[in-house]
């Protein structure tokens, strides 16, 4: 009888946690608190970020930090619902890009950030758009790579 009672108690505890889980899913999405990898940027048309360029963005409490694929940057942003804007000026390291491709990504990325007016999540991607709705930048959430280390 105690086994049946234990199962009933366990089931009741599980059901009691369902409303909290449902409420957690209703929380609004935010681009903050995640490392995002740049996948495409506006360059006349949307251009894919080529391998091996690794450009990133992190948004946390009004501070934007990341990498252009050549240099690191930081600056300020304002987030209000679906509205997003970045300050015109970013602090930027000044290392030379290894090639013209990386330099093009850096230029396009940094030129697009001050034009951003809105953000949205579309098919798992973070999309930054201009005030007229034109896509400027797309990102995917960074995925941790689990590769074995060589000892």
Gyration radius, in Å: 21 Å
What is the general shape?
A: globular
Instruction: Report the β-strand fraction as a percent range.
Output: 35-45%
Secondary-structure element series: HEEEEEEEHEEE
Specify the number of helices.
2
Give the quaternary arrangement of the chains.
single chain
Low-confidence stretches: 3-27
- The helix fraction, in percent, is 10-25%
Number of strands: 10
Terminus-to-terminus distance: 54 Å
Q: Which structural class do the helices and strands define? A: alpha+beta
User: Mean of the pLDDT scores?
Assistant: 82
Major sheet size, sense and barrel closure: 10 strands, antiparallel
Could you walk me through the main structural features you see in this protein, from its secondary elements to its overall organization?
By secondary structure, this protein is an alpha+beta fold. It is built from 2 helices and 10 strands, in the order αβββββββαβββ. The chain has helices spanning 2-25, 100-112; strands at 35-43, 45-48, 56-60, 63-67, 72-80, 83-86, 91-92, 118-122, 125-129, 135-141. Strands 1, 2, 3, 4, 5, 6, 7, 8, 9 and 10 form a 10-stranded antiparallel sheet that branches. The longest helix is centred in the N-terminal third of the chain and has 24 residues, at 2-25. It is globular, with a radius of gyration of 21 Å. The relative contact order is 0.16. Residues 3-27 have low confidence and may be disordered.
């Amino acid at each position: 009888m105690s086994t049946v009672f234990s199962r009933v108690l366990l089931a009741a505890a599980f059901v009691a946690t369902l409303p909290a889980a449902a409420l957690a899913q209703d929380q609004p999405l935010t681009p903050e608190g995640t490392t995002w990898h740049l996948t495409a940027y506006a360059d006349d048309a949307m251009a894919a970020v080529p391998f091996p360029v690794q450009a990133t963005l992190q948004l946390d409490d009004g501070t934007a930090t990341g990498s252009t694929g050549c240099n690191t940057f930081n600056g300020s942003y304002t987030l209000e619902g679906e509205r997003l804007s970045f300050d015109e000026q970013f602090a930027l390291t000044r290392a030379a890009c290894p090639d013209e491709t990386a330099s093009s990504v850096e230029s396009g990325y940094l030129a697009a950030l001050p034009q951003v007016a809105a953000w949205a999540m579309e098919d798992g991607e973070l999309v930054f758009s201009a005030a007229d709705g034109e896509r400027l930048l797309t990102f995917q959430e960074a995925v941790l790579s689990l590769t074995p280390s060589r000892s």
